[in-house]
Specification:
The protein has 496 residues and is an all-alpha fold. Helix content is 71%, strand content 0%. Helix 2 packs antiparallel against helix 9 and helix 6 packs parallel to helix 8. The chain is globular and about 70 Å long.
Length: 496
């Protein structure tokens, strides 16, 4: 997701003598962006957001689940823990952000990090795909390294988008829209074909295909147009890190900041994630519906459509609602949509004549739509909590807090599956795990007092943190709060 974008401009107006065209319009739009910025930058957005995160993320999710289930033969509770470990590089995103902002390598600030990201992904995917009997520990290390490569590329392209948004303010929203569009298209294409490729070439073959996205990211590092800055002052790096750390600590100690941060962490951590237990049940031939690889991919693709619908609904109808009121209803509906999983596992849908596949598709779309509606106001709230001067780094820190909450949710869900003895072949207590998860999903309603009452147009930070902002910066912040929700439409199923 784009975390550092300074969204302050509007879309570039269409020239009066040119009529919009549904086919040529997007092509002309891309040409305009390439001409105003640079074609290599646009290629970087397409490669990172569209290919690496969108298409590659969809293939990686389905491929990893089948690899762990069929090749490594792990239990669903273990897979929950391993999924959390793989996501750790996303938790330390502020470190990657500080490195790309502060540490220049051979006179370049962005290109070396794209090259490093591509190498990490390429080597790790090759290791998994070519090794016939890779030990679980090394497979986990390779998957974590691949995740780190995607996270580094994500932060680096975020910085490039922010830099171009500042140098071309009239194109800021165009750049955000391009990022969102590429991610959405990549996911919508990736999920349907992921199951097909798992069926045709197996999970290891999918990892072989996943060498293509990091290769493109590596190519971005080679061709990206970036000014060369020699004689970099490496002696000042440590002081810059110290100054940034002190500024973030001062901000976190403010009650207006740490209270909503605590809510964001707890709201994610208490909503236990038991998706791996459900995935194993989906593919079970005895107690479950025994879905094929292709069906699993299509189900996830419908979830991506639901996420887009949630983003559209928020943008057009809900973006001006007060944070506390909106989060109350969203969290309530989030708990209620979880009951669809309970009805499915108890086979209540069959009593009403609703096939498993149709019921799961409806549930996945509804759950992902509600999840997106929950995620987007938290993005806006996070943008409002960032003080002047360290906006990008502090926003990355807030996203890391959310990711720690998601990690706690994943590991907590794994512990719940383990305690209830939900295994590769035993699903008798899966209904109880779903019921407990649904009850815990409602528990954040009791800590909503931590969320400010204001709406996205109101100020949250104390006056002393806003004094350094001039009028133009204040207006830019207000505009950013209105548009930040367009930044992230498609993530992993947990909104990472």
């Amino acid at each position: 997701m784009v975390e550092e974008g300074n969204v302050e401009g509007g879309n570039k107006a269409v020239e009066p003598d040119k009529k919009p065209n549904c086919f040529w319009g997007p092509i002309d739009w891309l040409r305009m962006l390439a001409a105003e910025t640079h074609w290599s930058f646009v290629f970087g957005i397409v490669s990172v957001y569209g290919i690496s995160q969108g298409l590659g993320g969809a293939l990686a999710r389905v491929g990893t689940e089948y690899y762990m289930k069929d090749v490594q033969k792990v239990q669903p509770s273990e897979l929950q823990v391993y999924s959390g470990i793989i996501s750790i590089p996303w938790i330390v995103k502020p470190i990657w952000g500080l490195l790309t902002d502060v540490v220049s390598i051979r006179g370049y600030r962005r290109r070396p990090y794209f090259i490093l990201s591509g190498l990490l992904g390429l080597v790790s995917m090759l290791l998994i795909s070519l090794h016939s009997k890779l030990h679980l520990v090394f497979a986990l290390l390779a998957l974590t390294a691949g995740s780190a490569g995607v996270a580094i590329a994500d932060v680096t392209i975020d910085a490039c988008v922010a830099q171009n948004s500042i140098s071309h303010p009239s194109l800021a929203t165009d750049l955000q829209s391009l990022c969102t569009l590429m991610s959405a298209i990549g996911a919508l294409v990736g999920f349907p074909i992921s199951g097909v490729f798992v069926h045709l070439v197996g999970p290891k073959g999918v990892f072989g295909l996943l060498t293509i996205p990091p290769a493109l990211v590596f190519l971005v590092g080679i061709i990206l147009s970036e000014p060369h800055v020699p004689n970099f002052a490496y002696k000042e790096i440590s002081q810059k890190f110290i100054d940034a750390g002190k500024a973030m600590w001062r901000t976190l100690k403010c009650p207006e900041v740490w209270r909503p941060c605590l809510y964001m962490y707890l709201s994610f951590a208490l909503s236990l994630n038991i998706s791996e237990g459900l995935f194993y049940w989906y593919t079970d031939s005895k107690g479950g519906p025994s879905f094929s690889q292709e069906s699993i991919g299509y189900i996830f693709s419908i979830g991506a459509v639901g996420a887009i619908l949630g983003a559209i609904l928020y943008q057009n109808k809900l973006k001006d609602e007060p944070f506390r009121d909106l989060l109350f209803w969203i969290q309530l509906f989030y708990g209620l949509t979880g009951m669809l999983d309970l009805m499915l596992v108890l086979r209540i849908n069959l009593k009403f004549g609703i096939p498993d596949y149709l019921f799961i598709v409806i549930g996945e779309a509804a759950t992902q739509m509600i999840w997106r509606l929950k995620w987007m106001p938290l993005l806006v709230l996070s943008a409002k909590l960032c003080p002047s001067g360290i906006e990008g780094t502090f926003f990355a820190l807030l996203m890391s807090i959310d990711n720690v909450g998601l990690l706690s949710s994943t590991w907590g869900g794994g512990l719940l599956l383990h305690l209830l003895n939900v295994t590769r072949t035993k699903f008798e207590n899966l209904w109880l795990a779903i019921l407990i998860r649904n009850i815990l999903r409602l528990s954040p309603l009791g800590i909503l007092f931590l969320v400010p009452r204001g709406d996205p147009s109101s100020s949250i930070l104390p006056t002393e943190m806003l004094n350094s902002k001039d009028e133009a910066e204040t207006e830019a912040e207000a505009e950013e709060s209105k548009n930040i929700e367009l930044v992230s439409l498609i993530n992993s199923g947990d909104g990472r």
